[in-house]
Amino acid sequence: MLREIRLFGDPVLRTPAEPVTDFDPELRNLVKDLTETMIDAPGVGLAAPQIGVGLRVFVYNVDDEPGHLVNPVLKLEGEPEEDDEGCLSVPGLQFATPRAPRAIATGFNMHGDPVTVEGTELLARCVQHETDHLDGIMFIDRLDSRQRKLAMKAIREAEWFGQPVPEVRVSPHSTQRIS
């Protein structure tokens, strides 16, 4: 099912997500919804908080290689390199963002099996970007102060900025309002 993507300014995007403890059908439905929403957007990655679910889950589709990761832990390698980066929660804007050139992410798949995702270039950037979402960090937080000021100005001028904030799902089983 397609889900609404939360936009910059929504508190769920700044709230660290909770670890997944139940690898159940609801989690599998969440992964399916994330994947469908990401593909429809279109994007190369989407984290659960971006659709209002406060769980440590993200999906990706880089170079036609789809995947997902639950409860990721990152190991980064190399000196940060800048490249343009955007975000479905900050539509239409891109900024040169520093990221490690190599990432190794360990975690689980939706069935609870251990998974390791190793990547360079776009996959490394995507894994770092989506894991940041799970920690309540947005890519603009990674910009230097000058670029961040420009990004914030562009966000404030965007037609989507300031939209009403819908409810937040902290787990697949409950809905609450964060304010």
Automatic annotation (TrEMBL):
It is an enzyme of class 3 (hydrolase). Binds 1 Fe(2+) ion. Fe cation binds at C87, H129, H133. The active site is at E130. InterPro entries: Peptide_deformylase (IPR023635), Peptide_deformylase_sf (IPR036821). The keyword ATP-binding does not apply. Its EC number is 3.5.1.88. It comes from the Bacteria. One of its GO terms (biological process) is translation. Gene3D superfamilies: Peptide deformylase. Pfam families: Pep_deformylase. Its cofactor is Fe(2+). It catalyses: N-terminal N-formyl-L-methionyl-[peptide] + H2O = N-terminal L-methionyl-[peptide] + formate. The keyword Cell cycle does not apply. Keywords: Hydrolase, Iron, Metal-binding, Protein biosynthesis. CDD domains: Pep_deformylase. GO terms for molecular function: metal ion binding; peptide deformylase activity. Removes the formyl group from the N-terminal Met of newly synthesized proteins. Requires at least a dipeptide for an efficient rate of reaction. N-terminal L-methionine is a prerequisite for activity but the enzyme has broad specificity at other positions. Belongs to the polypeptide deformylase family. PANTHER family: PEPTIDE DEFORMYLASE (PTHR10458), PEPTIDE DEFORMYLASE, MITOCHONDRIAL (PTHR10458:SF2). This is Peptide deformylase. It comes from Trebonia kvetii. The lineage of its organism: Bacteria, Bacillati, Actinomycetota, Actinomycetes, Streptosporangiales.
